[in-house]
Design brief:
alpha/beta; 5-stranded parallel beta sheet; 24% helix; flat
C-alpha cells in the first residue's frame, strides 16, 4: 500500500514538473517577486506616471521615473518615452531647448532602443525583439524596425526613411 502511494506521489510530481518549469523565474528570485513582476507587466501602459496618450503604441509598457529624473538633473529634456519590463531604453531629447518640438520614442516588448532627437519631427518605433539605434539630427526622419530586426539608421539630412521588414538586418546612412 505504501509502495503504491509513493509511486502515485512520484507520478504526480512528474506531471507537475513541466508546469513549474514553464514559469519564468530568475536564480535567487522568490515566487512572490516573480509574481509581482508579472503583475507589473500586466498593468495598463503609463507614460510619466499617467495613462498613455491615444495613438501612441505603448503596449505592455510602464514609464521609469528614475531615468527621467536622472536626465533632468543633467539638464536634458526627456520627451514622451515609454519603457517596459525587460527593456533598456534611452531617449535624449534636447529639442525643446533648441526651439524644436518634442520627440516621441516607443519601445516594444523585449527591445533595446536608443533615440537621440536633436530637432523636430524625429520618430523611432521598435517592434518586439528589435535592437534599434536611431540618430536623427535632421528633420522628418522616420525609422520603423520589424520584429526581430537589427537596424542602425543615421540620417543627417531631411526626409530620410528606412523601413526594415520582419527578420531583416538593415543599415542605412
Amino acid at each position: 500500500m505504501v509502495g503504491r502511494r509513493a509511486v502515485g506521489l512520484f507520478a504526480t510530481l512528474a506531471l507537475l514538473a513541466p508546469v513549474v518549469a514553464g514559469c519564468e523565474m530568475f536564480a535567487g528570485e522568490s515566487w512572490e517577486e516573480a509574481k509581482r513582476k508579472a503583475e507589473e507587466q500586466r498593468r495598463p501602459p503609463t507614460v510619466g506616471g499617467a495613462r498613455s496618450t491615444p495613438g501612441v503604441t505603448t503596449a505592455g509598457t510602464a514609464a521609469t521615473k528614475t531615468a527621467d529624473e536622472t536626465l533632468a538633473a543633467l539638464g536634458i529634456i526627456q520627451g514622451p518615452g515609454s519603457c517596459g519590463a525587460g527593456k533598456s531604453c534611452t531617449m535624449t531629447c534636447p529639442a525643446e531647448k533648441m526651439g524644436g518640438l518634442p520627440c516621441t520614442h516607443t519601445c516594444g516588448a523585449g527591445s533595446r532602443c536608443t533615440s537621440a532627437c536633436e530637432t523636430a519631427g524625429c520618430r523611432q518605433t521598435c517592434a518586439a525583439g528589435a535592437n534599434c539605434t536611431f540618430v536623427c539630427p535632421g528633420g522628418k526622419c522616420i525609422q520603423t524596425c520589424g520584429a526581430g530586426a537589427s537596424c542602425i539608421f543615421t540620417c543627417p539630412t531631411k526626409n530620410c526613411v528606412q523601413r526594415c521588414a520582419s527578420g531583416a538586418s538593415c543599415t542605412k546612412t
